[in-house]
């Protein structure tokens, strides 16, 4: 049997990717990630706010600490789990797309990102994102001078009144966001890597991009991935605790889209896109650019073959 006819063998699972993904996402959210998330969510929930207006609103809720609202425990729980899920599942899916479907870097990158994003949504991101949005958008008690209940008291109250569905409100919008997010980020980052290879003459796949080139590719991929901001605004509205008597009950993705468009027009669907671009760049640099660099470093230390690099 020739090399070309040899059956494709399933590679061993690389569990170092799980810990690596969790560590990278914890770093991302604790540095720039959560402040950008808070501003983005504030603008999406208060669609008449400008960028500076949203910053002033966040500062009024707790000065600089307002930018880290929802970090503990929800953003940390989300980061420590979704990073692991993303890096592990996306690397496996990207590898399989290349080996079994014979896809190029762009197609395999999209496949890996979509599968990783879907896995994230239903395993961990849905309820964590919902609780972060609840914390960021519940102003009434604070504005009235009433000390708001603890985050776990809010969680228990939502669960008591609405059950699992309440905790996972907007999870389908989260799933659409996550699979388009990471499909775009991985795919566009891989496409940017191919472009950088051509510009630098590294046409042979064995010639590795350096750290600066990886980060540049990730920055391009992350910035361009903000095209799906309407899905993010829909997600925030579905999970928001901002009071609006005109908002329909039992929101679905379609109902929410119609409500936002009727209330704020096309611009309303793109509120928060500026911090979203910054967040997309930072997340992609951490999870794609630094992720690839870190996977290779771990592989050298452990003697393993990094997943997706077979």
Automatic annotation (TrEMBL):
Solcar repeats lie at residues 13-95, 213-297. It is a multi-pass membrane protein. GO terms for biological process: alpha-ketoglutarate transport; mitochondrial citrate transmembrane transport. InterPro entries: MCP_dom_sf, MCP_transmembrane, Mito_Cit/Oxoglu_Carrier. Keywords: Membrane, Transmembrane, Transmembrane helix, Transport. One of its GO terms (cellular component) is membrane. Pfam families: Mito_carr. It is found in: Membrane. The keyword Transmembrane helix applies. This is Mitochondrial DNA replication protein YHM2. It comes from Trichomonascus ciferrii. The lineage of its organism: Eukaryota, Fungi, Dikarya, Ascomycota, Saccharomycotina.
């Amino acid at each position: 049997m020739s090399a070309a006819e040899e059956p494709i063998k399933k590679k061993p699972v690389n569990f170092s990717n799980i810990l690596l993904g969790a560590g990278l996402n914890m770093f991302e959210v604790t540095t720039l990630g959560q402040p950008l998330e808070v501003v983005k969510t504030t603008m999406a929930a208060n669609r008449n706010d400008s960028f500076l207006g949203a910053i002033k609103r966040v500062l009024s809720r707790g000065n600089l600490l307002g930018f880290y609202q929802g970090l503990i425990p929800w953003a940390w729980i989300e980061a420590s789990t979704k990073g692991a899920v993303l890096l592990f599942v996306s690397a496996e899916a990207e590898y399989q797309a290349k080996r079994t479907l014979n896809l190029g870097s762009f197609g395999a990158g999209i496949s890996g990102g979509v599968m990783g994003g879907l896995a994230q949504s239903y395993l961990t991101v849905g309820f964590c994102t919902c609780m972060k949005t609840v914390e960021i958008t519940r102003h009434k008690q604070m504005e009235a001078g009433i000390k708001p209940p603890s985050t776990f008291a809010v969680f228990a109250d939502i669960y008591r009144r609405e059950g699992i569905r309440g905790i996972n409100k907007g999870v389908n919008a989260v799933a659409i966001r996550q699979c388009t997010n990471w499909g775009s980020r991985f795919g566009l980052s891989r496409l940017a890597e191919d472009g950088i290879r051509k510009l630098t003459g590294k046409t042979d796949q064995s010639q590795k991009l350096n750290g600066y080139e990886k980060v540049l590719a990730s920055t391009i991929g992350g910035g361009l991935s903000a095209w799906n901001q309407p899905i993010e605004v829909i997600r925030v509205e579905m999970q928001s605790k901002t009071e609006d008597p005109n908002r329909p009950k039992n929101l679905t993705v379609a109902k929410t889209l119609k409500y936002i468009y009727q209330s704020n027009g096309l611009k309303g669907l793109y509120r928060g896109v500026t911090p979203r671009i910054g967040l997309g760049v930072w997340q992609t640099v951490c999870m794609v650019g630094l992720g690839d660099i870190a996977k290779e470093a771990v592989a050298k230390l452990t003697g393993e073959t990094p997943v997706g690099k077979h």
